[in-house]
Amino acid sequence: MQHEAIPEIQAATTLEALQTVKTKYVGKSGLVTRELGTLGKLPPEERKARGAEINAVRQAIQDALDTREATLRREALDAQLASEAIDVTLPGLPLPSGGLHPINRVYDDLTGIYERLGYTVVEGPEVEDEHHNFEALNVPWYHPARDLQDTFWLEDGRLLRTHTSPMQIRYMTEHEPDLKIVVRGKVYRYEATDATHESMFHQLEGLVVGDHISMADLKGTIAEMARGLYGPGAKVRFQPSYYPFVEPGADFAVYWDNPRGESKWLELGGCGMVHPSVFKAVDDLREAQGKTRVYEGKTGFAFGLGPERIAMLKYKIPDIRYFYANDPRVIGQFRGELE
Amino acid sequence: MKIPYSWLKELVPGLPVVSELEPILAGLGLPLEGVEEVAAPPAGVLLVAVKAAEAMPGTQLTRLTLDAGEHGERVIASGAGNAVGLPAGTMLALVSPGTELGGMTYGVRALQGVESWGMAASAKELGLGESSAGLMLFPAGTAKPGTPMRELWAADHVLDVEVTPNRADVLSALGLARDLAAFLKLELVEPAAGPQAVGEGEIRVSLPPKGIRIERDPTQKLRFGCDRFVARTVSGLRNGPAPLWMQRRVTLSGMRSIDLIVDTSNYVMLELGQPTALYDRRDVRGDQILVAFGLRQGERVRDLLGGEHEVGPEDLLILDGAQPEVSTVAEAFETAGQPRPGDTVLGIAGIMGGDHGHVRADTTDVVIEVAHFDPVLLRRTSTRLGLKTDAVYRYERGVDPLLPERAAARLVGLLGDAGGQVHPGATVVGDPEIPGRIEATGEQIRALLGMPVDTGEMRGILTRLGCVVEGEGDTLSVLPPSWRVDMAIWQDLAEEVARLHGFAHLPESLPTLRVHESNVGAEKPGVARATLRRTLAGIGAQEVVTYTFTSDEEAEKARTERPGVRLRNPLTADRTGLRTALYPSLVKAAQAHAKGDRALIFEMGRIFPASGETERVGLLMRGPLAPRTDQAGIAGDFRAFKGLVESLAGTLGASFELRQLRGEAVPSALHPGIAGEVVWNGQSVGWLGALHPEIAQAFGLKGDTFLMEAALPLPGREWTFRDPSRTPAAWRDLAVITPAGVSYGEIAALLREHGGTLLESVEPFDVFTGEQIGTGNRSVAVRLVFRGDRTLTDAEVDPVMDALMGAVRAQGWSIREK
Question: Per the database record, which ranges form the Aminoacyl-transfer RNA synthetases class-II family profile domain (chain A) (predicted)?
Answer without folding.
Answer: 115-328
